[in-house]
Amino acid sequence: MKKYKYILTICLGVFFTLNIGAQEKEATMTLSFAKVDSSDVCNVLVVSEGKPVADVTVKLFVQRLFGLLPIGKDVTTDESGIATFEFPSNIPFNSDGKLIVLAKVEDDENYGSFEIKSETNIGVKEDLTKLEKAERSLSGSRDNAPIYFIVASISIITGIWGTLIYVVLQIFKIKRKKTVTI
Amino acid sequence: MIKNDISLDKTTFETFTQEEYMVMKSDLLQPVQKIGIWGKVWIGFLITICLLGIYAYYIQESKSKYVTVSLRDYTMWGVYISNFVFFVALSLIGVLMSAVLKLTHFEWYRPLSRIAEIIAVAAIMLAGVSIVAAMGRPDRLHFLVLHGRIQSPIVWDIIVIMTYLVTSLILLFIPLIPSLSTCKNHLNGKPKWQMKMYEILSFGWEGTAEQWKILKKSMKILTVLVIPLGVSIHTVTAWLFATTLRAEWDSTNFGAYFVSGAFLLGVAGMVVAVFVIRKAYNLEKYLTEMHFDKLGKALVLMSFIYIYFNINEYLVPAYKMSGLHANHLLSLFTGDEAFFYWSVILFGMVIPGILPLFPKMRKPLPLFIITIGVVIAAWFKRYLIVIPGLAHPYLPIQDVPNSWKHYSPSLVEMTIVAATFAAMLLIVTLFSRFFPIISVWEVAEGKLEGKDEIINYK
Predict the structure, then answer these.
(1) Does B163 sit within 8 Å of A160, measured CB to CB?
(2) What is the ipTM, given to two decimal places?
(3) pTM (predicted TM-score)
(4) Residues A75 and A41: beta-carbon distance below 8 Å
(5) A171 at interface of B, judged by CB pairs closer than 8 A
(6) Beta-carbon neighbour count of residue B74 at 10 Å?
(7) Within this chain, do residues A50 and A101 fall inside the same structural domain, yes or no?
(8) Among the listed residues B30, B93, B123, the one whose alpha carbon sits nearest the alpha carbon of residue B433
């Protein structure tokens, strides 16, 4: 029995040693924005153990209300560890005037998955006034229903409910007529 | 019947004597007079299911809905809404079986009208309950009035459902007034409160010529009014779908398609109700084989009209088979829902369209079996309109958990649906236990064949 325990301990020891050896290395990213020929670019620098890492595929996103909006195609880092994305300048930013930008590395064979979140003030302020339709229309707000629609609805509703009220009054008339017998 | 020695009445009434009228009264008041043991068991059973439904609703509302129901971002309308459409369709039974037949002078409507009207009232009530069960925030129901847009089909639906419910209730109540007076005068051994209820609700009815005149006039107005209302309620229900952005609901045919389906369900529901009421209350003398014969013929007509609209609804997009429709149509024709879809077509349209062409199939039992199939198929038909429609949106479904892509109702949802059915049957059952389910005076008036006025019968 002792012998088996000894073998088991050795096996487990070898297994953990191998496993630690095969573990992914740690890497980090930094995001920076720059202007190149009047267009914006986003540089993602991938560093591991203080050295830039090449050949890592990076994805760039902007956080929106219900999910992440991908920016451009995936870019692989060059020898200096930098992945350069063209960053569109027409994305509407949040109410605080900022965009939240995310860079992600997913399932890299050496470094696994990791991400970084950063802020930028590149973007445009959304003109919400164009959503608030001022004119009356079927798609307008409660206060902007078309006049013809309100008139038609109220006429139909009044006509039908008026008839119903008339009929109910008739029922009460039945009670009043009970004294007149034939 | 008892005609031989009634010299008193013979001079005035050739076909129908006062004594026959008394026999009819006692026949038709029988279900109100005495409730047997099975009647009580049936009511107890229905109440139990209703209570289970209330408990299920309590679970749904007290825990997060995501735990208790299978509704998600895509299939946000599940069995509750298909159940709602089913009940709205069923409520058109009152329009068809009472109003249309009455106005077109089909005299055989007489014993059927009140059955149809109480089913209509019960169905529309439970349609409303189904909507509330489907609501994410039922506590905000009144927001529909406070913040609703008049341009929104949901608001039209609420308005038209309320109007139709009130109209149906008044239309049920007005012809009931003379019957309430009959109950007051002829029932005995009933609790005091019940007799008091008859007394109050009969509005001092004495059957005077003036009272009859007012009653007939009011009935006529409502009978005319209820037809466009009934058509509107189901058309607006169809528009709830047709105005929502889903490829398979994008149809100009939808209103007529829904109304024709409702009329088919109305006839089928009527046959089922008449068969059960006839057996349970021994009313074979009033709900005769002739009624089944006529209803069987109506069933064939309505089946073919519905088949026509179904061909319009499915053949045209299937012929083009555009990308938007292909997914949905193929899943119905040959895919996951094919078994359901073809069963619905077979039992819900083809069989009721063909079998009752043969007179033997228009006898009570065969017709009852056929129409049970139609009613079940009609429920699944609404399921097939609502759920696969939602599961195929314009933008492809992606990056969502797998469970969001498919819908199958949870136990809580099915219990609530079962409870709505039980509640509908309970309303009809209780009504038939407190009020004559067949209108005595309307049937008597029919017997007179226009030779005399009903006002002479007390």
Answers:
(1) yes
(2) 0.84
(3) 0.79
(4) no
(5) yes
(6) 16
(7) yes
(8) B30
